[in-house]
Specification:
Layout: E1 2-7, H1 12-22, E2 26-32, E3 46-50, H2 56-66, E4 70-73, H3 80-85, H4 87-108, E5 111-117, H5 139-152, E6 158-163, E7 166-167, H6 178-187, E8 192-195, E9 203-204, H7 205-217, E10 222-225, H8 234-245, E11 252-255, H9 257-260, H10 275-281, H11 288-300
Parallel strand pairs: 1-2, 1-4, 2-3, 4-5, 5-6, 6-10, 7-9, 8-11
Helix pairs in contact: 1-7, 2-4, 4-5, 6-8, 8-11
The structure holds NADP nicotinamide-adenine-dinucleotide phosphate (NAP).
Length: 302
């Protein structure tokens, strides 16, 4: 039976990856920092272990001991502003961890799948294809690009799956995503300021995890862009959510990136062209209105 090591399973994507792989005939080595916060734990072919991916010796020992057929590296420091203000921590989490995993994967012969981001692009000419030229505008994006380069030059059997503004819901999530953040604020009648001069193709986490599991199953390699298909601004997304919730849309104020003045610069217009994923594995993303409805229903049912 193939075995899959997943890093960062306590996160939004990691939790969903466990769900997607538990429907397949594989053994899952689920790892993350600290105790498990998984909402659903498979009953068979599953093991959870604490693994801090910046601890090189621990990473080495874990992989040598378990010899996974495939490593899916989803753990990362994902808070873009924190990456800008704590660059050493961001570098360790996003780059050093990748190097530790690559080094030991060379010993065990494990296949390597890295999860990366639209933030490797400058954001002046989105939506982007897989072979467009990267040019990150912030530190988070720079570290993810360095990690990508390490994977591409590793000599391993590799795949890089890039994605965009991931949203969805699990019971025990540490961080909010754009949809859960808007839903919570609107439900509490709290006014929010949402940026209207950035464009993304938001990605339902269920679609992303299924795409990664399919890529693993079909042994696909190279770079894949996996996201939604609707190119919208976060402000438009927020008003859409207000409509679905039948909440007061006047709680949402449209602001520019300059007005928001975040610590890290954001690429203005990213989003992905996903024709390669459609062609190679029949990828069909959920339309944004359906993805929002699904996420809202999960939020309400808790
Ligand atoms: N979310 C997005 O919009 C988005 C967009 C493009 C690409 N991505 C990429 O998608 C991947 C998954 O992101 P996500 O959305 O699931 O983010 P997330 O919810 O922040 O999950 C990341 C997970 O990584 C864990 N982690 C961080 N440092 C670690 C360490 N040193 N050792 C072990 N685990 C560690 C975190 O642990 P704690 O929970 O304990 O902090 C968290 O559970 C990342 O590689 C990210 O760069 C995400």
């Amino acid at each position: 039976m193939r075995s899959i090591l997943i890093t960062g399973v306590n996160g939004l994507l990691g939790q969903q990856l466990v769900k997607s792989f538990s429907r397949r005939n594989v053994f899952i080595f689920a790892t993350s920092r600290g105790p498990s916060r998984l909402s659903d734990v498979p009953t068979t072919n599953f093991q959870y272990d604490e693994l801090d991916v910046v601890d090189g010796p621990a990473v080495h020992d874990f992989v040598v001991r378990n010899k996974p057929s495939v490593i899916i590296h989803a753990a990362a420091m994902t808070q873009v502003d924190e990456c800008e203000s704590d660059k050493p921590a961001c570098y360790n989490a996003n780059v050093s961890s990748t190097r530790f995993l690559i080094d030991v994967a060379k010993q065990t012969g494990s296949r390597f799948i890295l999860i990366s981001t639209d933030f490797i692009f400058q954001g002046d000419s989105g939506p982007y294809r897989e072979d467009d030229e990267p040019s990150p505008v912030n530190y988070y994006g720079s570290t993810k690009l360095v990690a990508e380069t390490a994977v591409r030059n590793s000599g391993l059997d590799w795949c890089i799956v890039r994605t965009v503004l991931v949203y969805g819901r699990h019971r025990q999530l540490q961080r909010k995503n754009i949809v859960t953040w808007v839903v919570e604020n609107l439900k509490q009648s709290t006014p929010i300021r949402v940026v209207n001069d950035q464009w993304r193709t938001p990605t339902l986490v269920d679609d992303l995890a299924e795409a990664i599991a399919t890529i693993e199953e079909k042994n696909l390699s190279g770079i894949y862009h996996v996201s939604g298909e609707d190119l919208i601004s976060p402000y438009e997304l927020a008003t859409h959510i207000a409509g679905e919730l039948q909440s007061d849309a006047s709680l949402i104020t449209s602001v520019t990136s300059d007005e928001l003045n975040q610590v890290a610069k954001r690429p203005p217009k990213t989003g992905f062209i996903i024709s390669k994923a459609k062609k190679d594995f029949d990828y069909k993303p959920t339309p944004i209105s359906e993805g929002i409805r699904k996420t809202i229903n999960l939020s309400i049912s808790e």
